[in-house]
Amino acid sequence: MSEESSILARSRPISNRPVKRVIDEALVDVRATRPILEQIGNKWSVLILTVLCTRPSRFNEIMRRLDGITHKALAEALKRLERNGLIERHVLPTAPVGVEYTITPLGHSLREPFAALYDWALCHGPTMERAQEAYDRARDGQN
């Protein structure tokens, strides 16, 4: 059984459309979804949005909570998230001037999928680490 026919066999028809057509349409949707997923799916975007889901934060607070991010990477990620409507930047009337970032309703709509991804990472991270170690051992044995 080919992979495609295996997928077809496991899939249930969606509405009255044939399953094959649904799969073809899903592959076409990759073109539409890829740019969006590239914007929200990188590691810093996910982590920044996770931080901002709990409460608004200033730049340095976000940086402290995201161990390993550089000043430049954080600044670029925040601009990208703001451009995409996922966060808002608010200038605070303080001396010196402060800036606080808050998550928008659009950004907040990612909370549930990100929480599921986070939970998956906690649950399956050790299994992935063991798989990586086994792979590396096997590769080292080939050289």
UniProtKB/TrEMBL annotation:
The HTH hxlR-type domain is annotated at 31-129
Pfam families named among the record's database cross-references: HxlR (PF01638)
InterPro entries registered for this protein in UniProt? ArsR-like_HTH, HTH_HxlR, WH-like_DNA-bd_sf, WH_DNA-bd_sf
UniProt entry keywords in alphabetical sequence: DNA-binding, Plasmid, Transcription, Transcription regulation
One of the entry's Gene Ontology molecular-function terms is: DNA binding
Biological process annotations from GO: regulation of DNA-templated transcription
Does the entry feature the keyword Cell membrane, yes or no? no
- Fetch the SUPFAM superfamilies from UniProt: Winged helix' DNA-binding domain
Q: What is the protein name for this chain?
A: Transcriptional regulator, HxlR family
Species per Swiss-Prot/TrEMBL record: Rhizobium leguminosarum bv. trifolii (strain WSM2304)
